[in-house]
Design brief:
With about 200 residues, the protein is mainly α. Helix 5 runs antiparallel to helix 6.
Length: about 200
């Protein structure tokens, strides 16, 4: 939503592509959020609603402050552009937050899509030479390349971890074995077998 604010003619004149792309993106995201809210319950629904309300309130506050306190489009685009740089750099770096010595929760296609997105937006930013679009997308390219390199490094160890986990799931631990006192048979414990 910050990029939509950045693209407004009152903030950065002649940025119709930024407005168009971000309106489409927000529309798609709102559909995902609506589906999530329709099928979620309780704490998860409240949490997403609170985050959504907080985000809309933050963008509205920034818009009100920038449009009322800044008199020139150059100053407005600088203030909003700096905020956009921080948020977009965080978006590109976010997949690295789940990175351990395993790439189980860091899909390769997400990293490749981030790389493609960063390259395309950097190309656009260099054509217009918009520094506030260039900086986060160059950082995004670096983060995405780093993710792909980490994926290549940790792919084999992830496969070993997954195989070991699958092997453990196939084994019966001693805590799950119960000796039936009547006939000496060993059975798996659990409510499905009538043992509580």
């Amino acid at each position: 939503m910050m990029w939509l604010l950045y693209g407004l003619p009152a903030v950065t004149p002649h940025n119709m592509l930024i407005i168009t792309i971000n309106v489409i993106g927000i529309t798609i995201e709102l559909h995902y959020i609506a589906l999530f809210l329709a099928y979620s319950v309780g704490a998860a629904r409240r949490r997403v609603l609170l985050i959504l309300v907080a985000e809309v309130a933050f963008v509205a506050a920034v818009a009100a402050l920038v449009l009322n306190l800044s008199r020139t489009p150059t100053h407005r685009s600088m203030v909003v552009g700096i905020l956009c740089v921080f948020f977009e750099a965080g978006m590109y770096a976010a997949p690295l937050s789940v990175m351990t010595e395993s790439v189980e929760y860091m899909p390769l296609f997400l990293s490749l899509a981030s790389l493609a997105c960063g390259i395309s937006w950097t190309a656009y930013a260099l054509i217009k030479f918009d520094i506030y679009i260039t900086i986060p997308n160059v950082l995004g390219i670096m983060f995405a390349v780093g993710q792909v390199i980490l994926y290549a490094i940790y792919y084999k160890s992830t496969q070993k971890i997954l195989e070991a986990r699958k092997g453990k799931a196939d084994q019966i631990s001693m805590a799950e074995v119960v000796i039936d006192g009547k006939n000496g048979n060993a059975t798996r414990s659990g409510a499905g077998n009538g043992h509580y």
